[in-house]
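We both want to read discrete structure tokens more fluently, so let's practise on a single case. Once you have written the record down, we can walk along the chain together.
***
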Amino acid sequence: MITVSNLSLRYGKRTLFEDVNLKFTSGNCYGIIGANGAGKSTFLKILQGDIDPTTGQIAFTKGMRVAVLKQNHFEFDEMPVMETVLRGHKILWGVMEEKDALYAKADFSEDDGLRAGELENTFSELDGWNAESKAAELLSHLGIKEDLHFKLVKELDGNQKVRVLLAQALFGNPDILFLDEPTNDLDVQTIAWLEDFLADYEGIILVVSHDRHFLDAVCTHVVDIDYSKMTIYSGNYTFWYQSSQLVARQKADSNKKAEDRIRELQDFIRRFSANASKSRQATSRKKALDKINLEDIKPSSRRYPGIVFNNYLREAGNEILDVQNLSKTEHGELLFSNVTFNVKKGDKIALLADNSLAQAAMLNVLAGYDKDFKGTFTWGVTINIGSIPNENNSYFEGVDLNLIDWLRQYSPDEKDETFIRGFLGKMLFSGEEVLKKCNVLSGGEKMRCMFSRMMLMRANMLILDEPTNHLDLESITALDNGLNDFRGQVIIASRDHEMIQTIANRIIEITPYGIIDKEMTFDEYINSDRVKEQKAELMAKAPKAAKVKA
């Protein structure tokens, strides 16, 4: 158990947390949620001992082993991958180091022999003889192949380092796990494995993540940071979001009677409990929901952007997009070839690829940013394209404009300041914020500006490359809702499982050797045996076409 008592954290006049009292118990996974700047990662750092609170105490049950997902990707650069993972179990690693030092002594004494015997017993109790094989299994599940296990960490790329550090945190089944954005840089298959791993975990897990599907898959509770307080709610992120929105609507309806509100909430919880029974954590999650006190559910103070795309200039005709034999090579690497497909009216397509560079390249070609390709594509005459590229710095760097003047550039007709302020207001820029220079914006603020620009374009065809990058959960949820409501066409590449599952009615996966094109949901696609067979058939062509000259 972890007990948090009377915790507060203040920076000058600003209060981040005040009078926080919480208990975290074994067998549960707690997703920490809150608006940007609310203090999610800061709270984890307090629990880890990296930051001292202004007041209050943190108490851990004696003897519980804590593991943390490290954020310093260079800390272990000079160490082999296997050693880095084994160091995650500090007690076991300490025993191994002391054993090796003793056995290496030239003047090995009788006392040394007695101490070595004690260490061997401890080593055996900690399952030390299987440590390397279990560490290797973890690494393999996380996509680190065997030929990398004894290389230095500095020889790995950034994505691989993240996976090694995650393996380090998971190694040895610690009693308490602190995970800050554990799904960053992981592919769909690896995230699915991690979800299964954590869903069966018997210890205490505290996790910060912007991945809603991941939070829903692993969390039994959410810890909501709001109003400088922290409240634990039973259920996963979707339950918290939907119940909070329901209570907010009820609060706004002054005519709704108290008994009607209670009945509506009870019906909502009953329906959600039934859905929870189908999840991997069915028992614990359903029990938690059954014990909910209706008075505990409160509306959130969160502000959600207003992302609406339906105000397009004209309805699309039947001819949307025809792609014929597209191929793209970059720096001698074949990213995709023989890409042929036709977009139909109403299609919302998720574009997949094992290589994210291939996804970006395909979308850049279709959006008109890249002219260096082979093959052809033709847009219908009624199509008006709005796009958000993976990298948007070119829209802001070296541009000395405030937000009003920046956005005014992209308004085809209306230039009035009040009109432009309205679009910025939808993206939560208000008051003096709209006079901020666009070249000093954060990553999340830039993305919200790009959505304002896209809405002004009034497009009936949207091309989006990783549109959730830098966004908080509120903006991601608003974008998901906006794309779901959009009646036009979409081609999107995203690592957000929930977004792809809820938006896409068609999946196109591109490879260097062809494509797989299926009209189905994302979950149906990743679980389809036929899709796996088709992908294997395409990959069998790899030796013949792995590289071509630029």
